[in-house]
Amino acid sequence: MTAFAPDSLVLNRKLPLWYQVSQSLRASILGRTPDASLRLPTEEQLAAHYGVSVLTMRQALKELEEEGLISRHRRRGTFIEPGARRSTPRRLLGSIDAIVAQQSGELTTVLGHGAAPVPGELAEHFPDLTEIVAYRRLRRDGETGEPTNWAENAVRPELAAAIDPADLERWPMTKVLRDVVGVRISRITDTVEARLADPETAALLQVPLLSPILHYTGVTYDEDGRVVDVARIRYRGDRFSFTVTVEAH
User: Fold this and answer.
1) 155 with 125: CB under 8 angstroms?
2) Phi, psi values for residue 177, rounded to 5°
3) pTM for this entry
4) Is 137 in contact with 108 (CB distance < 8 Å)?
5) Is the model more confident about 88 or about 179?
6) For position 240, what pLDDT does the model report?
7) pLDDT tens, 189-198?
8) Which of 74, 102, 117, 159 has its CA at a distance of 20 to 30 angstroms from the CA of residue 41?
């Protein structure tokens, strides 16, 4: 069994440090290798790794403990919960890394991709295009294989030309665009609303027709203000909750 090794993190001073650390550590936990130890390094070791105070590290660990990802025991240490991949909330706070982390620990299947006319409901985002490249993916729980959500992405054709669909089975679209294609992402606008499962969603997610789902729309902009991707994701309503944190300054 190998020691648990958290990913590195470049801190953004505009966001709470504890939040950034908790999201980075969360992604490391959910994306850990099967042979990784369930025991985490000490608070002091983690604080040194991330370059934050022990107090900030404790706040980050408290967040993960409240999510049910870890448990802390006096004198014994901090341990990853064996069921850490199950039913964790989605948190929206404006961090690109957090959005990438949200989809870690899931098994992704590309259902299809190809050129398609710009959907009428997305025309405002792509006023200079008549076609986009559409990607459809189904995500499953990393342990049970149960469908959790399915996603449609509408991507600018010149960027899609550099995307290997196999990468989308390993990483979220945001990570592929940023780290593989080289898009300089400036912001993502998120919208979450309650809807009822249509026939396609019900079949893919294995839920009853017209059962509640969470419908997420993420509009991704590059540094020139162009929309480069619009993601529409349908989450099973019985598996996820969304939490928005507002920081007072």
Assistant:
1) no
2) -65, -45
3) 0.61
4) yes
5) 179
6) 66
7) 988 888 888 9
8) 102
SS3 of 81-139: the string is CCCCCCCCCEEECCCHHHHHHHCCCEEEEEEEEEEEECCHHHHHHCCCCCEEEEEEEEE
Write the DSSP assignment of the chain as a string of letters.
-BPP-PPP----TTS-HHHHHHHHHHHHHHT--TTB-SBPPPHHHHHHHHT--HHHHHHHHHHHHHHTSEEEETTTEEEE-TTTTSS--EEESS-HHHHHHHTTTEEEEEEEEEEEEPPGGGGGG-TT-SEEEEEEEEEEETTT--EEEEEEEEE-HHHHTT--GGGGGTS-HHHIIIIII---EEEEEEEEEEEE--HHHHHHHT--TT-EEEEEEEEEEETTS-EEEEEEEEEETTT--EEE-----
**All residues at 6 or more sequence positions from 52 whose CB lies less than 8 Å from its CB, including other chains:** 11, 17, 18, 21, 60
Q: Tally the residues of the chain.
A: 249
Residues 167-194 have a mean pLDDT of 92
Distance, in Å, from the CA atom of 152 to the CA atom of 177, rounded to the nearest integer, reads: 15
Structure tokens at 158: 């010149």
Helix axes 17-30, 54-67, angle to 10 degrees: 50
Lookup: tokens for 249: 């300054």
Nearest-angstrom CA–CA distance, 15 and 236: 29
One-letter amino acid for residue 5 of the chain: A
Residues 6+ apart with CB under 8 A from 241: 89, 90
- Rounded Cα distance between 166 and 156, Å, is 18
